[in-house]
Amino acid sequence: MREGMGKLKKSETKDKSTDYTKRTNSVGEVKKMEEPIMSEEELEKMSKELGIDTGSDPNGDCEKLRKEYEKKELAQGNKERSIIITGAPVPEKLERLPFRPQLTTEEAWVQLEGELTRSIADLNENEFLIITTKKKLYFVQFAAQGGFGMRVEAVSNAYLADGRELSEDACTNLLTLGWNSPTYIPEELGEEDRRPDGSPNCFLDIDSPVPYNLVASLAVRTLREIFGAIHPGGLQYKALGKGDCSIRFPNLRIARER
After folding, report:
1. Who's near 15: CB < 8 A, 6+ residues apart?
2. Percent composition of the chain: helix, strand, coil (DSSP 3-state, to 5)
3. Side-by-side strand order, sheet with 150-154
4. pTM listed for this prediction
């Protein structure tokens, strides 16, 4: 079978002006075939395997046979490849290694949202938690303000440069999610003159009691839908307390920025 196909493919490499299938000239006359593509024995063998009747003309359906054969070979190849991917049939005795499979991407995001809810609820007054994308360093940050609630911010173009700027659509989508638009740019005021109201970033000032679950949900949606994070593994965090003391949140299961 493979030898017959080898002859067929070899004939295809010849000059297109010498075609061994039937062709008609410009006036519709049938040209004489110069030589057969394959022997009648090979053609009959292939046609039986594929279940195709070639009729009385041994070369009339060679092109059809070739296409059907290639289709069958491709299907067989895909079948064999699926066996390689999915593995062999499960044996009667199967030893399971004592490990737990990783979460799916969606499950990982759900887990992060839950752990982020607990983490921001655990922040004391004047403590900060910042979640950043590893690639473009887009961030969402949380600042605990004790009895006054919490300030939450998403980075704006005021702090982005070098091709990392958010598009107009991204800025609009931040507002659509519920963020307030920036109220001033950093250069307008010195560090000592920062206003308690407003921010150069997109922001929310949330009164106590803070709905931490809703805040965490907004942060995760922002990281995914606006900042392009595909998986929590593409994030890192930094948390600071009084005197810039570093705080750990291993429950977040993402890298700690150093």
Report:
1. none
2. 45, 15, 45
3. 202-206, 150-154, 139-144, 128-133, 235-240, 255-256
4. 0.62
Q: Which helix (H) or strand (E) holds 237?
A: strand 235-240
Q: How far apart are CA 64 and CA 77, in angstroms?
A: 20
First to last CA, the chain: 64
For the segment 182-241, what is each residue's pLDDT rounded down to a tens digit? 998 776 555 555 667 889 999 999 999 999 999 999 999 999 999 999 999 999 999 999
- Whole-angstrom Cα distance, residue 140 to residue 130? 6
Sign of CA dihedral 209, 214, 220, 223: negative
Rg of the chain (C-alpha set): 34
The one-letter amino acid at 99 = F
Got the DSSP string for 133-169? ETTT--EEEEEE-GGG-EEEEE--GGG--TT-PPPHH
CA 105, CA 107: separation in Å to the nearest integer? 5
Distance CA 123, CA 130 (A): 12
φ, ψ (nearest 5 deg) of residue 246? -75, 140
Residue pair 201/153 in contact by the 8 Å Cβ criterion: yes
Separation between Cα atoms, residue 74 and residue 80, nearest integer Å: 10
pLDDT of residue 14: 41
Cα 47 from chain centre: 44
Q: Which residues contact 194 (CB under 8 A, 6 or more apart)?
A: none
Tokens representing 238? 């930094």
